Amino acid sequence: MKRRTFVRTTLGAAMAATFPGYRIAWQDPPDVEAVTGDGKPVTLKGKRIAELAARLRGRVLLAKDEGYDQARRILNPSFDKRPALIVQPTGTADVRSAVEFAREHSLLVAVKCGGHSLSGQSTCDRGMQIDLSLFRGVRVDPAARLAWVAGGTLLGQVDHEAQAHGLVTPLGTVSHTGVGGLVLGGGFGRVARRFGLAIDNLMGVEIVTADGRILQANPTENDDLYWGVRGGGGNFGIVTGFEFRLHPMQRQVLGGRIVFPLARARDVLEVFADYGARTPDDLYFDPFLALPPGGEPGVAGLSVCYSGPAEAADRVLAPLRALGTPLADELKPLAYTALQRSGDITDPRAMGLYVKGGFIPRVPADLIATMIDGFAGHPARATQLFFQHCGGAIGRIAPDATAFPHRAAHANMLTAVAWKMGDDPAAHVQWIKQYWERLEPFTRGFYVNDADPNATAGELNANYAANYPRLVTLKNKYDPTNLFRLNANVKPTG
After folding, report:
1. Tens digit of each residue's pLDDT (9 = 90 or more) over 273-298
2. Based on the domain organization, do 162 and 243 belong to the same domain?
3. CA neighbor of 262 nearest in space, from 297, 229, 232, 293
4. What domain range includes position 190?
5. How confident is the model at residue 10 (pLDDT cuts 50, 70, 90)?
6. Which one, of 49, 116, 57, 47, lies nearest residue 86 by Cα?
7. Helix (H) or strand (E) segment spanning residue 337
8. How far is CA 417 from CA 3, 116, 454, in A?
9. Could you tell me if 61 and 195 lie in one domain?
10. Contact yes or no for 230/205 (Cβ under 8 A)
């Protein structure tokens, strides 16, 4: 424990040295109109905003400040919201000051890490956005096989530092995703079938709760909270530090896409239905169907990551190779970190996005038929159906061991439409909702990180399954006023 305390302390010192204090951009800030969590108007006095800024090493941004527009935006430009103020902490103390200010004024609060929130809940209109982009850092202890990660860190930073020592922890498939947003909902990844979800490798957290306390949550300290943050989303506070277990893994994997004409969709999906349910843990493969805008030919394919022994690769990949000659075969040896970057979005502001998703326990023939029969493109939109491969180590954890209950899933099935910003999205969103109505009966719950922004309280509650009552108890204890509500929200009963 002394070693852990030392590493936490040195990481905090390094972070503080990286981000020196910022001066207040204004000496006499104006009063700002804002809203509370339940939507009531509230006036934030300029004097109080100045006092908040004086307590921070980070920044407070108002609408006319340089950096405000960049900070408020998230990856999906469909959500164009304007917070009343933005706080950019550089450490845990700043996060606590922001939370205390928000609590005192009962403000609507959004927390942004990487800004990947598909539901748009990492930003807000007229509330406080806490933007963690200045609060990043990773420290690896290769002997103990542990990593300590600051609250605003991106996945690629963890991969980069861990792989330098031949170590890994399962974290997502896009390197610029925020650790906090991904992990608290569960945390899938290309090696999760081998090593479990991110939450299965989370050894502990530091968290600022709604009352401004800074708590450690792990198997021996606040173990109830430790259970809840592993799948319960951002319902209980803002996590300012993560401790992950690391696993030895070679730096090079076999990864990439195998692409076929869309006419081969049934063959691709049938391979996933059969072999995907019995494949070794070190093979992860996701089928996808895609129709680009403009009438270009559609494709069906597989995104692959094999991290097992090289001498077994031909045998393990044989069922995929049996599909025959593809349009493109991008599967090759490459660095795991390069594969993790391969899905990064280089121009995130150009396309609007709408996603619907849910877990499937298997891939029956009638689901395959429904997916193919209803899949249709449009000249002004990109249309996709894709999956996240589950099973393996993910499914060997009990549903009540963490707050994440969907351990029996074969895959997370997702549909998405994207359109050029400025176009009217109504027809595209209507289409995908109708398509999803045909697919949804095959699902059993959904991934909270993909939650529909219009999901009802009943749908959210049911999605936590038998873990929901325990989550309500935790919410009552740690956030009884529902300060942290922009998430897959568990509402307190008090």
Report:
1. 999 999 999 999 999 999 999 878 99
2. yes
3. 297
4. 138-249+465-478
5. very low
6. 49
7. helix 336-341
8. 48, 16, 17
9. no
10. no
Query: What string of H, E and C letters represents the secondary structure of 114-139?
Result: CCCCCCCCCCCCCCEEEECCCCCCEE
pLDDT tens, residue by residue, 209-255: 999 999 999 999 999 999 999 999 999 999 999 999 999 999 999 99
Check: CB of residue 418 under 8 Å from CB of residue 118. Answer: no
pLDDT per residue as tens digits for the range 441-487: 999 999 999 988 888 999 999 999 999 999 999 999 999 999 999 99
pLDDT tens figures, 35-80:
999 999 999 999 999 999 999 999 999 999 999 999 999 988 889 9
Task: Say yes or no: 112 and 24 in one domain.
Answer: yes
Residue 215: both structure tokens together: 């708590």
* Domain-located, residue 307: yes
Beta bridge partners of 238: 208
Q: Using the 3D structure, point to which of 63, 97, 131 is the last residue of a domain.
A: 131
DSSP string computed for 313-329: HHHHHHHHHTT---SEE
Nearest to 409 by CA among 468, 362, 450: 362
Q: With contact defined as beta carbons under 8 Å apart, do 139 and 11 qualify?
A: yes
pLDDT of amino acid 446: 96
207 C-beta neighbours (distance < 10 Å), count: 28
d(CA 196, CA 281): 10
What pairs with residue 85 in β-bridges? Answer: 128
Alpha carbon distance 15, 34 (integer Å): 31
Query: Would you state the pLDDT for residue 350?
Result: 65
How many independent structural domains does the chain possess?
A: 3
Residue type, 195: F
Vertex 441 angle, CA 440 and 444, to 5°: 80
pLDDT at 1 over 60: no
Distance CA 492, CA 484 (A): 11
Q: Is 399 exposed, middle or buried (0-12, 13-18, 19+ CB in 10 A)?
A: middle
Q: Are residues 122 and 44 in the same domain?
A: yes
Place of tokens 């949804």: 440
Name the percent of the chain lying above pLDDT 90: 87
**Pair (123, 90) in one structural domain:** yes
End-to-end CA distance of the chain: 36
CATH, residue 208:
3.30.465.10
For the record, the structure tokens of 127 come out as: 């509330």
Instruction: Tell me whether residue 70 is in a domain.
Output: yes
pLDDT at position 346:
60
Same domain, residue pair 195 and 335: no
Mean pLDDT of the chain: 93
**Contact assessment for residue 234 and residue 111, using Cβ atoms and an 8 Å cutoff:** yes
State how far the Cα of 288 lies from the Cα of 387, in Å rounded to an integer: 7
Q: And the tokens for 432?
A: 């995908």
Give mean pLDDT, residues 311-321. 97
The CA distance from 271 to 277, in Å, is 9
